[in-house]
Amino acid sequence: KKQKSYSISEPKDETKKREHLASEEETAVDEGECHLSEEEAQSKGKLEDISENLQEAEVGGDKEEKHVESQSDKEDKEIISEATENTEDRKRETKEVQTSEVKIERVLQKTPKKIRIVEAKVVLLDGTEYSCDLEKKAKGQVLFDKVCEHINLLERDYFGLLFQDHTDQKNWLDISKEIKKQIRNLPWQFTFNVKFYPPDPSQLTEEITRYLLCLQLREDIASGRLPCSFVTHALLGSYTLQAELGDFDPEEHDSGYIQEFQFAPNQTKELEDKVVELHKTHRGLTPAQADSQFIENAKRLSMYGVDLH
Hints:
Layout: H1 2-109, E1 117-123, E2 129-135, H2 140-150, E3 159-164, E4 170-172, E5 188-194, H3 207-223, H4 230-245, H5 269-279, H6 287-298
Parallel strand pairs: 1-5
Antiparallel strand pairs: 1-2, 3-4, 3-5
């Protein structure tokens, strides 16, 4: 009996041991499982963080790619717009060139208006005639300048152009107006004359001016517009011979040499003889000096300076 009770008690201890061992194993398993679950959670958290970082990186990359793409698109658009603008500018330039060429062709195709030319004739103070062509719309200044240039005249304020209207009335040409509005007859005919007589002819600076004044006074006296006495006619005639022929030479100047000159409206043989007598006394005078003496004596006449035209 003692052996039987011993044998029964022994397995109870073994079962307890086994149960204790089993409980220890379970707790170990549980602890292992808990430890594993914590490690798994940590690894999962790391994986999640990595995945989030990757997603963020992908999003950032997408944004950068989109930004780069947008910049490239903008550059492409700018290049395209510049190209279109250049083409438009070229088109405009070609259109402008074409329009200008068309205008030039039209101008060339148009028949130019014929400029009407009128001949003008001017009798100068020395008896010669000057002629020139003028436009029909030309002003009197154009013709007056041409005449003055022809005779090399600088002191022009004393001179003018005379013309006769349809009633044979003499008129001064207004150089500031068109000629066609003042004269109707064709061709245009004028005479170049002294318009304003200088009160002191010695103040004239140009020899040509004094010469032209002298020619005008000769014509005024010979025509009777500037009346004077017999003695004055003879004296002025003698200065004219000295200026035109020089010193008296009996071999060259016979009795008839004076007949080609007109000194007075009613020139007589007595007057011609007196002129020749006085001409002999002017030996040594140059033509310019003779003209100056002529003017100095002519300006003393009562009608000198009066508009005789």
